[in-house]
Amino acid sequence: MAALALSTALAGCVTSVLDPNVKASQPIPAQLVSQMMARQMKPSDPILVRIFKEESELEIWKRTASGRYALLKAYPMCRWSGQLGPKKRNGDRQAPEGFYQVTAKMLNPASQYYLSFDIGFPNKLENALGYTGESLMVHGACSSSGCYAMTDDGVSEIYAVVREALRGGQTSFQVQAFPFRMTPQNMARHRDDPNMKFWKNLKEGYDILEVKRRPPVVSACGGHYVFDAQFANGEPENPLAACPPMTNAPDPELVAKRDADTRAMEAAANGTLISAHAYSDGGMHPSFRTMLEKNGAKELAKKTSRTRVPISRPDAVLLADQADQQN
């Protein structure tokens, strides 16, 4: 029975913990509320979340009084597993990449990893493509099996910000998960990666926040994402069918950015080495890597987790993660 419980925890990143109501009801730290007010934001204002694997960072963006979104805070990520590229099947240890919507029902105050929320993998497009997996989370601690681990302190603050936005009337918030910051330089560095066609599609949505300072409207047809499209006959039902006619013209600002980035990517490619595609398993933010190298896995686990659950000790899982990287 104990072995079954352990395998379930590692596969899905969720089970139960003690006293979930206390953890899930913690207020947003006063310092962060002050930062919101200084940027013309309220705790109840809508949010969106961006995740970057290569940089091992999670960003929270929040709508301001102007109606445009601005970066509230970036959080270092303690651990993600797998490689750069999308998650396709259950058990591949891949952390997802794509566009997701998170509702209040997807928040888990009884997570084994302190607190968590399900990012919504597989989405409608991924379902149509036959991708499999479940319970892919942003959670606490510093271990991952397809999830994004933020430490207990990090996820506690993130959870509070998310909770207050949903209580404020936002029915769901968007999570954008990327392999890296989609700059021309990074695109040039990874230009020979087999995932590049997919990443160029993700970049279309990435650019909308960069230019328009709002979340993109996400649709799917033709086997890929389509952003800010208005369709003559309503939203496409089949993500794999050819895209129906669109009634809106391309946005001039986005076209200009795309063209400028294409030129910059071509220029950067001339002097940029192509990134190797033989990845190690996942990664962590440099701040946690330094802590790991200085103090060891057990001390890192103590510093990043407030709880101890006998079924799956975070330090034991972290040691296993290290072994995976070496083999």
UniProtKB/TrEMBL annotation:
Q: Name one Pfam family in it.
A: YkuD
Write down the superkingdom of origin: Bacteria
* Signal peptide positions (record): none
Q: In which pathway does it act?
A: Cell wall biogenesis; peptidoglycan biosynthesis
**MF terms (GO), sorted A to Z:** carboxypeptidase activity; transferase activity
Output this protein's name. L,D-TPase catalytic domain-containing protein
Keyword Signal listed:
no
Provenance organism: Pseudaminobacter soli
